[in-house]
Design a protein that fits this description.
Oligomer: heterotrimer
CATH topology of the largest domain in chain C: Phosphoribosyl-aminoimidazole Synthetase, Chain A, domain 2
Number of helices of chain C: 9
Number of strands of chain A: 5
Largest sheet of chain A: 5 strands, antiparallel
Number of helices of chain A: 1
Strand order of the largest sheet of chain A: 3-2-1-4-5
Distance between the termini of chain A: 34 Å
CATH superfamily of the largest domain in chain C: PurM-like C-terminal domain
Structural class of chain A: alpha+beta
Number of strands of chain C: 14
Structural class of chain C: alpha+beta
CATH architecture of the largest domain in chain C: Alpha-Beta Complex
Radius of gyration of chain A: 18 Å
Largest sheet of chain C: 7 strands, mixed
Chains: A alpha+beta (86), B alpha/beta (363), C alpha+beta (358)
Radius of gyration of chain C: 22 Å
């Protein structure tokens, strides 16, 4: 469940005391509530579901998944050589 | 640009991960993806076609639209039919069959039923239509609950006396617990729903993984996310580990979104809830706390519930529990199709039956 | 503002039509007010020699010019859309293009249209004029004449603003076998540009989903491009416009009619970035979104290159591309090869596209 897609915050403002923003999804702009992600800043990416930001995209540099991918690429590069890019 | 939503780089990485899954798989494993959004992606990209035959994906009950009980749908239909009510809902709820009607039919008979993108839109409607009672059908898992709680708090702040919700939210961990405890359980591991965990974190799953010695891997929705989630699960299964791991770190942390959790707890409390096709699961739903019960549409409106009847042909219950695949149902594709759904999993785009019907190769 | 009064002989009390800026029930009563509306509004914008004769029917000398081996082609279509105006078009342009395109899909040259207007009491005459201007422009672009028209007015609440039904007449070479039944294994499937724009533009204009974009409807008359295509490639097998139900539904229809399998390559199907993004956000599929200026062309593979080249020379075909092939397979099957190399089965749109949360 739970369709969520990332978009870039382009503007943050207040409506009736609630933190709102405009978020750009590749050329489509939607109003998104930041009530539960008050730390979001302009130009950051947020994950949006039903008009609400669930979370701010985090820096993945050190993540486990990235490490797995790097290891796999190295492993299969050794195994298949050039064919890996086919 | 093309209809393809994945970059060539991520396609190549997905293939690598798939190769790795094939390489390390030695036994047969049943892995349940809890989330209907994942079922949808798996079917859309044909991920299941790339897996070795030993890996069997079981589609779980993770479609909130599908598991909403007949009783709640009946309540929704009765509330929508009352004069002066604007009944608002996410789009996919409108075609879910109750015992003999759905919200589209209610609209055709004159009810003011409207599709909204966000619960905040329903609050806006209430503000603009002070002479009407605006009711929001609050379905969804933990992902959707902060939006609903924030909208309700906003309505309170605006002093709106004409905004109500019909609480139907459900929680994932009790469902996983129930599936693992059920006598015929054949699930060896779970892909936990990435967006649910984005809000709730994954600490709640640790005791479950420990108790049932079952790996649980937080997984996202793109082909590469799914492939990685499956790989990490298979690694655990093959190595005999049973941990909670995170394959969706760009949006999920162990602790989750604390601000979101705080407003959920402020507005809601766990209640027992009936899951369509599965039955009652203890503390698996969310009801309004006493201070917010004035927003509860199920007590605000007069509702008469008659005897409710599921279609006798539909095996949705077995499908939602992972005991049967949609195409094992005798009604699948014959009596039951997205045009004429007998059960909820055929309605929502992420319902297991609908996903099967739309994406699976016809045999 | 249009204030020219018609001359009504023998009338004792002048009818103060110029004071109405909304449609009232009297505009449909068939009397002086109806006449005034016809003369001052409809004929002003849609008028031509035939329509302005004001007879109960149009008598066409034009058909004498039709060569003997040509077949008459007729199509009729009702147009309702909410809202009436959206980015890139309106119900007026839609009502002309929809019917012009339907006539063109058998390889015919559309020549004449008739139009029926159902107006709701209270409908602003300024909106009506705007719609008629748009119809007139679209008709001119398509090179068709509106030769007969009718108006009725319903009580407030019994219809919704304006409904327009149009009927198109044209003719085609008797030897053409262009139809949905004619797709053959080995044929190539070509599309003239990106899909989904119309559906998203209308959804955005409705306003209830709250998003904003630069997405425009693709509504356009395709007859000019089709005429060029048929001239260059007379052995076209199928022409079809993927309107409601979108590309996927239309291709399933063709696969059923021709009793073939159609195989698409997902990466080759053009979808604009913002359209894809809007679809992702709302949980919709661009392959099922409506189009009003798209053309599916199915031709023998030997003619594919020429067909593509011809389409690309036309403004509405610049982004034309081959999206798939016709295969023997089982009848009525539409398969999509995903970028991962897997195959997905596509069916017709079940009911309507519902924005989903989950």
């Amino acid at each position: 469940m739970c369709l969520g897609i990332p978009g870039r915050v382009i503007e943050i403002y207040d409506i009736d005391g609630i933190l709102m923003s405009k978020v750009d999804f590749d050329g489509v702009v939607q109003e998104v509530c930041l009530a539960t992600t008050p730390e979001a800043q302009v130009d950051q990416y947020v994950l949006v579901h039903a008009g609400f930001a669930l979370n701010v995209l985090s820096d993945q540099e050190a993540s486990e998944t990235l490490k797995i991918l790097k290891d796999l690429e190295a492993f299969y590069q050794d195994l298949y050589g050039d064919q890996v890019s086919q | 640009m093309t209809a393809s939503r994945v970059s060539p780089e991520s396609i190549q990485q997905t293939r690598l991960v798939m190769d790795e899954i094939k390489r390390i798989t030695t036994k047969s494993w049943n892995i349940m993806e809890i989330c209907g959004g994942q079922t949808h992606s798996i079917m859309e990209y044909g991920i299941d076609q790339l897996l070795p035959v030993e890996i069997n994906l079981i589609h779980g009950p993770g479609c909130p639209v599908c598991v909403t009980s007949l009783e709640l749908i009946e309540r929704a239909l009765q509330i929508a039919a009352q004069p002066g009510v604007i009944f608002t809902s996410f789009g996919d709820m409108l075609r879910v069959p109750g015992s003999n009607s759905d919200l589209f039919s209610a609209r055709a008979k004159g009810a003011d039923v409207r599709i909204v993108y966000s619960p905040m839109d329903a609050v806006r409607l209430a503000k603009e239509n002070l002479d009407k009672q605006v009711v929001f059908f609050a379905v969804g898992f933990e992902t959707t609950v902060p939006a609903i709680a924030a909208s309700l708090l906003h309505a309170e702040k605006l002093g709106l006396k004409n905004f109500f919700i019909l609480p139907a939210n459900v929680l994932v961990p009790p469902a996983i617990h129930a599936i693992l405890q059920s006598p015929g359980n054949r699930v060896n591991a779970f892909l936990a729903a990435g967006h649910v965990c984005s809000i709730m974190g994954y600490w709640e799953y640790e005791p479950i993984a420990e108790k049932f010695r079952t790996p649980i891997v937080v997984t996202g929705f793109d082909p590469l996310d799914l492939a990685l989630g499956i790989l990490m699960t298979v690694r655990q299964l093959e190595e005999g580990r049973f941990e909670v791991e995170n394959a969706y770190p760009r949006y999920v942390t162990r602790e989750g979104n604390k601000a979101a959790q705080a407003i959920i707890t402020q507005v809601f409390e766990p209640v027992d809830r009936q899951w369509r096709g599965i039955g009652m699961i203890s503390k698996s739903g969310l009801g309004l706390r006493e201070a917010y019960q004035k927003f509860d549409a199920s007590t605000r409106f007069d509702i008469q519930l008659a005897q409710l009847q599921e279609s006798s042909h539909c095996i949705a219950g077995s499908i939602l529990r992972g005991m049967a695949k949609p195409n094992e149902c005798p009604a699948f594709g014959t009596l039951c199709s997205p045009t004429n759904p007998l059960g909820a999993p055929m309605v929502s785009a992420e319902g297991a039956c609908s996903a099967y019907y739309r994406y699976h190769k016809v045999r | 503002m249009d204030t020219k009064l018609s001359i009504i002989e023998g009338s004792v009390c002048p009818v103060p039509i110029s004071k109405h800026d909304h449609i009232v029930i009297g505009h449909g009563a068939g009397g002086a007010m109806t006449h005034s509306l016809i003369q001052n509004v409809f004929q002003k914008y849609l008028g031509n020699v035939i329509l302005n004769q004001g007879n109960d029917a149009a008598m066409l000398q034009a058909l004498r010019d039709v060569p003997k081996d040509q077949n008459l082609v007729v199509s009729t279509d009702a147009h309702i859309v909410s809202p009436l105006f959206f980015a890139g078009g309106d119900i007026g342009r839609l009502s002309i293009c929809g019917t012009v395109n339907d006539v063109s899909m058998l390889g015919a040259v559309p020549k004449f249209l008739t139009a029926t207007f159902i107006l709701e009491e209270g409908f602003p005459i300024s909106d009506l004029k705007r719609i008629l201007v748009s119809m007139s422009q679209a008709a001119e672009e398509a090179g068709v004449q509106i030769i007969a028209a009718d108006t009725k007015v319903t009580e407030k609440g019994k219809s919704d603003g304006i409904f327009i039904s149009t009927t198109g007449i044209g003719w085609a070479e008797g030897s053409y076998k262009i139809s949905g039944q004619s797709a053959m294994p080995g044929d190539v499937v070509i599309l003239n540009g990106p899909v989904g724009n119309h559906g998203i533009a209308v959804a955005e204009a409705r306003g209830n989903l709250g998003f904003h974009s630069q997405i425009q409807s693709d509504v356009a008359p395709l007859n000019g491009m089709i005429a060029n295509l048929i001239e260059a490639v007379p052995d076209v097998h199928v022409l079809r416009d993927p309107t409601r139900g979108g590309l996927a539904t239309t291709l399933v229809e063709i696969a059923c009619q021709s009793k073939v399998t159609i195989q698409l390559r997902e990466e080759s199907i053009p979808v604009d970035r913002d359209v894809q993004s809007a679809c992702n956000m709302l949980g919709l599929d661009p392959l099922y979104m409506a189009n009003e200026g798209k053309l599916i062309v199915i031709v023998p593979s030997a003619s594919a290159a020429l067909a593509l080249e011809t389409l690309k020379k036309h403004p509405y075909g610049q982004k034309a591309v081959q999206i798939g092939v016709v295969e023997k397979g089982s009848s009525g099957q539409l398969l999509l090869k995903t970028p991962l190399g897997t195959t997905r089965h596509l069916d017709m749109l079940a009911g309507e596209m519902l924005p989903r949360i989950c």
